[in-house]
User: What shape does this take?
Amino acid sequence: MQTHLPALDPFESVLPLCDSNKPIIDFVFPNPATVMGKFVLALLHGRIQETVTNHLYDRQTNQDKFLRNLSSLYSKTKRVIAQLESFDLGAESGFLDKIVEQIFRRHLESYVTVEIQCLQRKFKRILGGYYQSLGHQKKTQQGRFGNYFSNIFYSNF
Assistant: This one.
């Protein structure tokens, strides 16, 4: 059984590895579907999960890049999963979807927060550019008692 993954894109190497190892697994093992399921699990939890983690590590420093990479990696993983469904993996239905959920769980938990922060930042930049093109100066708003309360507050310190 080949266990060495080529230096190719890990998403591109999973299906050829499964295709090349399936005849050997079918010949050698009495329960090839279970072995094939464990082989796929090792491929996905090994190289694919490592690739996902390495590409998504900088969530806080570059949110735009994080969101682009998350989308790209999730799509690639789902495409691989769709291709793997043609194999008998000896597992319950949803086995592959559970693996995808395990790989991306940590990253998807923060997705909404990161997306909102990114959209707010872009909105502020676009709105600021719009107001700047109009020559508009942002003024601070204070209510009727705003100056009164701020004078009282700051005079005590």
